[in-house]
Amino acid sequence: MALPFNPLRVLIVADDQLVRAGLVAMLAQQSQVEVVGQATGDDDIDSLLEVYLPHVLVWDLGWNTVGPLASLSQLTDADPPVLALLADDSMTAQTHATWARGLLLRNTSIDDLVAALAAVARGLSVTDPSLGLPTTTSPVSPFGPLPQLTPRETEALRLLAEGLPNKAIAGRLGISDHTVKFHVNSLMGKLGAQSRTEAVTKTTRLGLLLL
Questions:
Q1: pTM (2 d.p.)
Q2: Least crowded by CB within 10 Å, which of 5, 12, 33, 192?
Q3: What is the rounded distance in angstroms from the CA atom of residue 108 to the CA atom of residue 184?
Q4: Phi, psi (5° rounding) for residue 161?
Q5: Can you give the C-alpha Rg of the chain in angstroms?
Q6: Is the peptide bond before 7 cis (omega within 30 degrees of 0)?
């Protein structure tokens, strides 16, 4: 697939310096790709987006995904799309629930990486089939394994059921809006829900939430 921009401006985000260097080395061989900057997940991503003006972010989640997923959840559809690189398939659903529009394994080939970059830059979604992303169009079966929600996710879910927005939930729980968004995205990913209403409906049907 041809790249929609020439060059395609890419910002690399990874906490591991060696991973960042490896991604830069791989993409430097592609004449139509320009790595405009590097960052860690702790950097001010909004400021970096203004400075580098990337078309796509390549975000390596590493093995400790809590911080990167929390940062990813702060992005919106007004920001450039993200191609996320996962160490394994354990956090596929949670990553899919964020603004990541591409999900690949971290050891993907350069050809697959560039093809995925082209897809997400065009507004498409792409997921490595080996990640086993669950279909979100099928309801969660009450006879299958129940999703395991954390205590904080359950608290957020109960407040969602009351119809509260993120800001009000943050006030009730004494946490930030961004943290609320992370918990909501995580529980929606675990449930395979496309909306907050669907998440409440599914958990009520499964007996995880009593209204």
A1: 0.61
A2: 5
A3: 29
A4: -65, -25
A5: 18
A6: yes
Report the alpha-carbon distance of residue 161 to residue 159 in Å, rounded: 5
Q: Express each pLDDT in 91-143 by its tens digit.
A: 888 887 777 888 999 988 898 898 888 888 877 778 887 886 643 333 333 33
CB atoms within 10 A of CB 15: 18
Alpha carbon distance 188, 84 (integer Å): 18
The answer to whether residues 13 and 41 touch, using CB atoms and an 8 Å cutoff, is yes
Q: Dihedral angle at the C-alpha atoms of 104, 63, 95, 208, nearest 10 degrees?
A: 140
| Structure tokens belonging to residue 59 | 């975000």
- E-strand spans in the chain? 8-13, 33-39, 56-60, 82-86, 100-105, 126-127
Query: In this structure, are residues 33 and 114 in contact, taking their beta carbons and an 8 Å threshold?
Result: yes
- Residue among 6, 12, 52 at smallest CA distance from 30: 6
